[in-house]
Design a protein that fits this description.
The protein folds into 2 domains: 7-152, 3-Layer(aba) Sandwich (Rossmann fold); 158-276, Rossmann fold (3-Layer(aba) Sandwich), CATH 3.40.50.10490. The protein is α/β, with parallel strands linked by helices. The protein contains 12 helices and 9 strands.
Length: 299
C-alpha cells in the first residue's frame, strides 16, 4: 500500500475542498446550529469529542454564550441547556444516541448521513455528506464539522484553506518521522486540536503520544522531553515555553499556521509513518468505524 492509494490519504487531501463547501453551505445550516446567547453543550466520542472541545472554547471566547463540551458517555443529561449539539460521523455511536435520548434539552446532530440513527433521534440534523469517509480513522469529516462551526461564529477560514492546500500540495511535514515520542500542546481551543493530533498518531502509527494544555506541560510532562523526542505546539507558544523546551534538547515544532491546517501535517505524518512500518492507515488494529454496543448492556 502507498500513501496515494489509501482512503485516509485521499480524505486528508480532500479537506480544503470540504471546508470550502461547508462555508458555502453555512446559510443552509445556520438556523439549526447554536444561536448567539444560547447555553450549549457539545458532545461526541473520540475525534468528535476533541472537535467539540475546540468549538466550545472558541464559542465562549467569541462571546456567543456559555458552552460546555463532554464525551458523550459523560454527558450530564439532567443539566439544562438551550441546545445540545452532537457530532457523530457514523451517526450510529451508542453513547451519542443514549445521550440524545436522555437529554431534556433540544438537540442538533452534525452527521455524515441524514438517515443515520443519531440524526433520527435528534430534533435537528446537519448532514455533511460531502465530507463522509471510508477510512476508520477520522480526518475530513471532523475538521469539516469544526470549520463549519468556526464559520458559524463569524470566523474567516480563507487563510486556513490556503495553508491546507499548500501543505497538501508540497507535503510540508516536519522531519520528525523517527521521533521516539511526540507531545502535542495547545492553549484554549487549540488544546482540543492537540488532543486530536495525539490521537491521530496513536491510531494510525501506534506512536507514543501525549497531549496537554500549554501551561500544564511544565507541571510534570516536560520531564520526559529529551533529544530524539518532539514537542509540537498548536497556536502561539506561551511566554517562556520555547526556552524551556530548548533546554531539554527535544525538537520543537512551532509554526505560524492555523491550528486546523497544522493538524493536517500530523495526519500526513501518521499515514506516512504507518505505511513505513507496514500498518494499514485505513484500518488500525482493534478499531472500527463506530462503537455500537449491545442494546441490553448497561450504560
Amino acid at each position: 500500500m502507498t500513501v496515494d492509494t489509501s482512503h485516509a490519504s485521499r480524505e486528508i487531501a480532500g479537506q480544503p475542498a470540504a471546508w470550502q463547501t461547508a462555508r458555502e453551505r453555512l446559510p443552509e445550516f445556520a438556523r439549526q446550529l447554536p444561536q448567539p446567547g444560547e447555553r450549549v453543550a457539545v458532545i461526541g466520542c473520540g475525534t468528535s469529542w476533541f472537535m467539540a472541545e475546540a468549538y466550545a472554547a472558541l464559542r465562549e471566547t467569541a462571546g456567543h454564550g456559555e458552552t460546555d463540551a463532554f464525551a458523550a458517555s459523560e454527558f450530564p443529561a439532567s443539566r439544562p441547556y438551550d441546545r445540545v449539539l452532537a457530532i457523530s460521523r457514523s451517526g450510529t455511536t451508542t453513547e451519542v444516541v443514549r445521550a440524545i435520548d436522555a437529554s431534556t434539552s433540544p438537540t442538533t446532530a452534525i452527521v455524515a448521513q441524514a438517515d443515520s440513527v443519531v440524526a433520527e433521534h435528534a430534533r435537528h440534523a446537519v448532514a455533511l455528506d460531502f465530507a463522509d469517509e471510508e477510512s476508520v480513522v477520522q480526518t475530513r469529516f471532523a475538521t469539516t464539522a469544526l470549520m463549519l462551526l468556526r464559520s458559524s461564529l463569524g470566523e474567516p477560514i480563507d487563510t486556513a484553506i490556503a495553508q491546507a492546500r499548500q501543505i497538501i500540495d508540497t507535503h510540508d511535514v516536519p522531519a520528525v518521522d523517527d521521533a521516539s515520542q511526540l507531545t502535542f500542546v495547545g492553549q484554549g481551543w487549540c488544546y482540543g486540536i492537540a488532543r486530536e493530533a495525539a490521537l491521530k498518531l496513536r491510531e494510525t502509527a501506534r506512536a507514543w503520544t501525549e497531549s496537554y494544555p500549554q501551561m500544564e506541560y511544565r507541571h510534570g510532562p516536560i520531564s520526559i522531553a529529551e533529544p530524539g523526542r518532539v514537542v509540537w505546539v498548536f497556536g502561539e507558544p506561551v511566554p517562556g515555553l520555547r526556552d524551556d523546551i530548548a533546554a531539554t534538547g527535544a525538537t520543537l515544532v512551532d509554526d505560524a499556521l492555523d491550528p486546523v491546517a497544522d493538524l493536517i501535517r500530523v495526519q500526513l505524518l501518521g499515514v506516512a509513518r504507518a505505511e513505513r512500518q507496514g500498518y494499514d492507515p485505513d484500518r488500525p488494529r482493534h478499531l472500527t468505524r463506530s462503537v455500537v454496543l449491545d442494546r441490553t448492556a448497561t450504560a
